[in-house]
Amino acid sequence: MQAQLRPENISGIGSGFDPLSPEVRRCPHPHYAALNRAPVQPVAGHPNFYLVSSYDTVSEVLMDPETYDGQPFPGYEVNIMSAMRPEPHKRLRGAIQSLFTNQSLTQLTPHIEAQVRRRTAELLAAGQGDLMALWANPIPLSVIARLFGFPEGEADLARLHRYGDAAIRLVIPLGGPGLPVPRGLVARWRQALGLLTALPPLLRLLWQLPAAERKALSQLPNPMADLPGYPRTGFPHHPELARLILEFQLEVLGILHDHLRNPRDEVVDALLPPYRRGELRLGEILSSALQILVAGYETTANTLGAAVHRFSTEPERLRELQDHPERIEAYVEELLRLDAPLQRTLRRTTRPVRLAGVDLPENAQLILMLGAANLDATRFDCPEQFDPARGNARRHLAFGRGIHMCIGAQLARLEARLALAELVPRLQAVELLPEDPPQRVTDKDIGMWGYTRLPVRLTPRSVT
Questions:
Q1: 215 has pLDDT over 80
Q2: Is pTM, for the whole model, over 0.70?
């Protein structure tokens, strides 16, 4: 794998790099050295979209939310915390941050520890299977369930998994231009039928929202639209999934109302004071819950998958952590740098601007290549090499930077550390299965880097 990442193996790519091509999605890393040499360039086949790479250039964009807006559609306010303009973002983040305080993380830690003990024991007892389904997905899903007060049975976690998958595929256009909208009568008929199934939960949700919030929903951009030069959502491709998004929001709303009537000493109760003070609206809680579900489970699951996959290809890493468990934290940070679970995100210029020597018009759509920035040789020595001992690994951009830095970054780090601290001492070896190779995520336009399936064979270690 490391040989593929060497700059000498990468040809110049000019404007021919397409982040949505299946080949790039399966393995984008070999292109990153060339991208970092040309930090701003147009995206072939996608007018008004520009690739932005290199550590300094990506950081410059992330640190200037006034010039580089997270809202992809001018004139609209998409109610997603990671995309909000600075003023509303500050208010919403300040309220939602109550879920991720040190007190909340301390409250969650015993639950995380119990989950990693249980899932690790079950994984090793099975001896063979899909690591994602058996271990990497259930751990963060159970934490998200506890965070929002969801039930935590296996069927409940499976439902939460479906909700998160639907959200990634549908409503968060933060990875780039999106796929072309399907045309023709068959596609339109399928879209109509799919959206029709969403009508009952939509009506139930609208009935429970205040009139002002119902009006705000009507002013959002049409998710079925195909606007040239702007990102497309996944609704035209997966209209049948819209129902799941609404059912998730109805569940969150039911939990919130239950806790308003009967407050407990649970993490989700931290949202009640800012809601009662008017600092949080119901719609904002619902959209934030959806984003936290996506950011809090799949990114962490992909980090756990990357950690164990590396044990299979570099078994010396496992031995090193067994001999020096204090290095697990550094191991996680280097994983986040080299295998960033989110490889790209989106910003829009609010005015004409010159970036890295390139003149950009107002409303240009910028695809920020976080994964490329993390492999910038001007920032990280031998960036293609996995080196947990590097002193500046924690300076990676896997969680972003600036006001929109991932709100759950510390929780994700905590989960990864605790999961590896439980698995590493108990694992003798892990092998990939030649007859059933890993399957990479290639069909989610948000820019996820991870596995849909990671079949492995595990040998438990005798611990005395």
A1: no
A2: yes
